[in-house]
Design brief:
This protein is mainly alpha-helical. It is built from four helices and four strands; from the N terminus they run ααββββαα. Strands 1-4 form a two-stranded antiparallel sheet. It has a two-stranded antiparallel sheet with strand order 2-3.
């Protein structure tokens, strides 16, 4: 059991897992923001443009609810077109934001690579030092001159 706990702890503490967890938390928060933006801003605006229609309540009723007295016996069967349109707009908005994030990241990476290549090209070439053979030959000459 201790080995299992140690393996699990090592797995959880890896950088990739922690990064992924942070990403999931941020994505969840971002999802609630986009859902609110769609439901509270875009959908009422689109509904107003097409004639004061509440798109969230835009449904196609396949069969009406069965009522007995004041009680609903069977719920109505409806196709939620407004909810579907809202989900499509939400997806497009999230995909657009992710596209811009990836595009920005790629542009920053490309600029970083260009800067790195420019620095490498601009760096003065280091003077070529003597080779090992040349150094050994110089040492041999010194030793010969001292032995004379």
């Amino acid at each position: 059991m201790k080995k299992f706990v140690k393996e699990f702890r090592d797995f959880i503490m890896r950088g990739n897992v922690l990064d992924m967890a942070v990403g999931v938390i941020i994505a969840t928060a971002f999802s609630s923001i986009t859902t609110s933006l769609i439901n509270d801003v875009f959908m009422p605006f689109i509904g107003w443009i097409i004639g004061d229609i509440d798109l969230a309540a835009l449904n196609i009723e396949l069969s009406p609810a069965v009522m007995e007295g004041g009680e609903v016996v069977t719920e109505a069967v409806v196709i939620g077109i407004g909810t579907f349109i809202s989900a499509i707009i939400n997806f497009i908005l999230v995909a657009l934001v992710v596209f811009f994030i990836v595009k920005g990241f790629n542009k920053a990476h490309e600029m970083s690579e260009k800067k790195k290549k420019a620095e490498e090209a601009a760096a003065p070439a280091e003077p070529a030092g003597p080779t090992t053979e040349q150094l050994l030959a110089e040492i041999l000459e010194e030793l010969k001159s001292k032995n004379k």
